[in-house]
Amino acid sequence: MIGYLTEAIFERRVREIKEKNEQNFLSAYITDFNVSDLDAFKIAAVTLKEDKILLGIEDFLTLIEQIKQHGFLNSELELAKRNQLNY
Predict the structure, then answer these.
(1) Using one digit for the tens of pLDDT, what is the confidence trace for 70-86?
(2) CA–CA separation, 17 and 82 (whole Å)
(3) pTM score, two decimals?
(4) pLDDT of residue 39
(5) Residue ranges per domain, the chain?
(6) Interatomic CA distance for residues 70 and 67, integer angstroms
């Protein structure tokens, strides 16, 4: 459940950035990757624009760093929960 909520909030942030046309990458996502019952990893990936590779990497890492430092807003979490319950 936590993985879903994290992914949903991240996806919404990326979508908002793309709607404002403020991104220098094509797409970005995070997901869980389970190696075994004991080992799980979070994977973050980005698809870059050919002519803006460095800017795309910077934008993506900035987004990840903001989340790492500040986390998610309560309103984002509540929205993701509501969307999951309505799904």
Answers:
(1) 999 999 999 999 988 88
(2) 22
(3) 0.80
(4) 84
(5) 2-78
(6) 5
